[in-house]
Amino acid sequence: MTTIKIALLGFGTVAQGTFNLLQDNAELIRNRTGVNVEISKIFVRNPDKYSHITLPETAQYVTDIDEVLKDDSIQMVVELMGGTTFAKDCVEGALKAKKNVVTANKDLLAESGPYLLDLASKNGVDLRFEASVLGGIPIIRTLYESLAGNRITEIIGIMNGTTNFILTKMSEEGLSYQDVLKEAQDLGYAEADPTADVEGLDAARKLAILASISFNRRIFFEDVSVEGITSIDTEDIKFGKEFGYNIKLLGIAKETSQGLSLNVYPAFIPTTHPLASVRGSYNAIYVKGNGIDDVMLYGRGAGSLPTGSSVVSDIMEVAKNISYNETGRLKPFYYDQKNIYSPGKIQSSYYLRLEVDNKTGVLAKISAKLAEQKISVLSIVQRNMDPETAVLAIVTSKCPRSYILNLIDSFNSLRSVKSVNSVIRIMEA
Ligand code: HSE
Predict the structure, then answer these.
(1) Probe ligand 1: pick from 162, 163, 250, max atoms within 8 Å of CB?
(2) Is 159 a residue whose pLDDT tops 90?
(3) Catalytic residues
(4) What integer pLDDT is reported at residue 197 of this predicted model?
(5) Of 37, 18, 99, whose CA–CA distance to 316 is shortest?
(6) Could you identify the atom of ligand 1 that is nearest to the CA of residue 196?
(7) Which listed site, 145, 310, 315, 392, has its alpha carbon 20 to 30 Å from 15?
(8) 386 CA to middle of ligand 1, Å?
(9) What pLDDT is recorded for position 287?
């Protein structure tokens, strides 16, 4: 049986999950691929950190990257370090040395994916990245291979576990954003600096990668309009429930006749939508295509073994390609130049929450402003805070975002409106 030597770069959480699966499922992997995948080198800065882990006899730690890049016996490099500077140098160096690469590095892919895929193709080697988006959910190969016969029209994802955990807790336990964030940090679910997750940046990077594959166009992080969850209030979640909605941070990429719209934002979704039942730190992705109609994948978007599972599937795929002499077949798939649609023009229903004077005639003034902006109301709920103040929760019919921004300006010009507290999009079923 052919032996294929691989090197792991980095030995953190995902690398250890990959290592464990390669060890525990070694026989199954051999049977399914027809090759023996052997870990030859593990590149780390400080091997002492891992003295508690027993390596197989064939494997050794190295602290000089050239011991991997200049070793002709290594045919595959598995980059699991993260970051976009040194990791990019390593991946670039490996591809130029005609080594196949598997990576779980979303940031690197979102920033330099097209360049690295071109480089892999020119060097006749594979670059695989199933684990870079949604951890254990097999979405990359699903889009690239299983759904290849479809024209994809829309992808909608709950692509970030930290924010889904926070929104689920706020919704189910009525806790504030700040309290849940602190709990998530104490439990180690959320990073000490949670910006990338809670501001939607992590989801936007994932959306850029998935949209590139779905729509055959180079899409970068900067092409995605992003809003996070930091201003979501438990009051809004309660009103949402009354209207039949759950709140989720969504990544949405959609093809319209005017071009592609690419957005990450918190939105109310009907409780009957399959994505509404995705709770806690789970992720899911809902894909619409002109053949399949719709399909949804659900699972763990992070974690050692789930993400390791995706890395190992890529390692097995590349190992088979090496053994059949078929690496480098994956041609760059960017041939389309659809324009990107301005977020201001996207039509949606909206939920608004305002604090107003609790006086006769105020509702009539609010209605007049809505009529001026040609926005019709689908539902309205009033709750009295005290004898002087009422809270209004309004659900509008579909309109462009620019209309809503004008409406907010006109509400703010009314003396009887104390504040416009929230504006949240509503996704159609
Ligand atoms: N921090 C991410 C999340 C996982 O919370 O989903 C890695 O992308």
Answers:
(1) 162
(2) yes
(3) 206
(4) 96
(5) 37
(6) 1
(7) 145
(8) 42
(9) 98
Measured by CA distance, the residue closest to atom 4 of ligand 1 is 302
Strand (E) or helix (H) holding 18? helix 13-24
- Per-residue pLDDT reduced to its tens digit, 13-66: 999 999 999 999 999 999 999 999 999 999 999 999 999 999 999 999 999 999
Question: What pLDDT does residue 382 have?
Answer: 94
Inform me whether the pLDDT recorded for 332 exceeds 80: no
* 5 annotated as ligand-binding: no
CA distance to 141, 284, 344, per residue, from 155 (Å):
15, 11, 20
Ligand 1 contact via 132 beta carbon (within 6 Å): no
Question: Does ligand 1 come within 6 angstroms of the Cβ of 200?
Answer: no
Is 355 one of the annotated binding-site residues? no
Closest ligand 1 atom to residue 302 Cα is 4
Residue given tokens 């499922």 in the structure block: 25
For residue 133, the CA-to-ligand 1 centroid distance in Å is: 9
- Show Cβ contacts of residue 339 under 8 Å, excluding neighbours closer than 6 positions: 258, 259, 260
Write down all domains in the chain, each with its CATH number in brackets: 2-135+304-323 (3.40.50.720), 140-300 (3.30.360.10), 346-426 (3.30.70.1150)
Q: Are 301 and 281 in contact (CB under 8 A)?
A: yes
For residue range 83-120, list pLDDT tens digits in order. Answer: 999 999 999 999 999 999 999 999 999 889 989 999 99
Dihedrals phi, psi of 51, to nearest 5 degrees = -65, -20
d(CA 62, CA 85): 20
Task: Say how far apart CA 318 and CA 259 lie, in whole Å.
Answer: 35
> pLDDT of 207-224, one tens digit each?
999 999 999 988 888 999
Quote the mean pLDDT of the chain. 94
Residue 148 in tokens:
């290849």
Q: Is 194 in the pocket of ligand 1 (CB under 6 A)?
A: no
